Amino acid sequence: MLAKIRTEWTFFSSHPLSMRVLLLTNLLYALVLPIIELFIGAYIMRNSQDVGLVVLFQLAQYTGIPLTFMINGLLLKRVPIARLYSLGMLLSGVSMTAMMTLRELNGTGIFFAGLIMGLSYGFFWANRDFLALNTTKDQSRNYYYGVETFFYTIAAIVIPFLAGSFIAATDSYHWFQGKVNVAYYILTGVVFAITLLASILVHRGGFQNPPRSRFLYFKFHKLWYKMLGLASLKGIAQGYIVTAPVMLIMKLVGEEGALGVIQSIAALLSALLLYLLGRVTKPEHRIPIFASGLALFVVGALFNASLYSALGVLLFVLCLLFARPLLDLAYFPIQLKVIDVLAKWEQRNEFTYIFNHELGLYIGRLFGCGLFILLAWYVSDTIALRYALLVIALIQFTSVFVARNVLRDTAKLEALTPDPKQD
Q1: Does residue 286 or residue 99 have the better pLDDT?
Q2: Superfamily for domain range 18-205+217-414
Q3: Quick one: three-class SS letters along the chain?
Q4: Residue 418's pLDDT is what?
Q5: At what angle do helices 350-378 and 222-248 cross, to 10 degrees?
Q6: In whole angstroms, how far apart are CA 145 and each of 24, 133, 152, 256, 386?
Q7: What is the residue extent of each domain of the chain?
Q8: What confidence score (pLDDT) does residue 128 get?
Q9: Quick one: average pLDDT of 304-329?
Q10: pLDDT tens, 44-65?
């Protein structure tokens, strides 16, 4: 066993320092994300019992992300990328603080807190995507995202269990005089501490900013429009995937302790499987991996729609624990490969495509979140959580055909692209 661990460590150490620092930074931030994604929704549900406010927070967050991508592109001309990356991580704690200092959870306050979280994610993801693009090659990206997904999945085991148990124990044993919100305040402090450590580490990577050049374009090669279609399909499901588990659990299961325990079940197996896939698979395996993730999402949504009970939620979350990492493991390398090829073909800054890709995601997220809010507020939250989730899953399944088409066209264009080394 120790020999196997040494072998994996040696293989990890054989990669460039910048890639290793980026992975370790993301490991630290992975400890924060479950708190942000799960327990902010639980906090809103506990204090308002309004699923619409949860999705409003998500919509505000998604609105802030593309705006920040544009701001980030302008700031990259003057500010080191590591500072912007660390700013994004630190702002997540600011958003949590802003929401928890609200005297009353209303639409305006929730939207403002969500907008700050959107700024946080915007600075984080814009710079993370660019750094991942520039610290990896196509042949190493399955491994990179396999390791990163392994980190995120392990965090999904430990953090929801610990944080959920802490909140539940505060309620059950009347810690802090039975004030459960104090537990959320403490978790916010933990978020600040971890993101500060990650911010210090990221400055050791020696990362370089993109060239100072134009990044805002409105016309692209037809391949990019297909990639934007794939991004929009991904975005449609994202709002549901992030917020649906917490709302279903709070509605049908009951409390945050169960939330943490359910998220931890089977996640270890998922983490090991995904690390193995990242280690041994090659670029040609991305479509089967992608299709497997999409199929699991549909199966989970079917369980939820047919049972709509605590058991249905459990089965849905278990399917999602495998589906989300599989989708990310395949999707991100596909996206970066397309950017690699088009940046050379169109002679543009890579950040051009990273920024524009976020707009494609936003269109999908806007549709998905808007659909949920309309159904929850004007029909019923039961319809939104039970049946619309299945419709969203079926729509997203069509992504596999779009992804196959994108990869085929990317290979054709790459074959036509002149090699700069031969010029």
Answers
A1: 286
A2: MFS general substrate transporter like domains (1.20.1250.20)
A3: CHHHHHHHHHHHHCCCHHHHHHHHHHHHHHCCHHHHHHHHHHHHHHHHCCHHHHHHHHHHHHHHHHHHHHHHHHHCCCCCHHHHHHHHHHHHHHHHHHHHCCCCCCHHHHHHHHHHHHHHHHHHHHHHHHHHHHHCCHHHHHHHHHHHHHHHHHHHHHHHHHHHHHHHHHHHCCHHHHCHHHHHHHHHHHHHHHHHHHHHHHCCCCCCCCCCCCCCCCCCCHHHHHHHHHHHHHHHHHHHHHHHHHHHHHHHHCCHHHHHHHHHCCHHHHHHHHHHHHHHCCHHHHHHHHHHHHHHHHHHHHHHHHHCCHHHHHHHHHHHHHHHHHHHHHHHHHHHHHHHHHHHHHCCCHHHHHHHHHHHHHHHHHHHHHHHHHHHHHCCHHHHHHCHHHHHHHHHHCHHHHHHHHHHHHHHHHHHCCCHHHC
A4: 64
A5: 40
A6: 12, 11, 10, 29, 32
A7: 18-205+217-414
A8: 87
A9: 84
A10: 777 777 777 777 887 888 888 8
Record the tokens describing residue 85, joined without a space: 């990356």
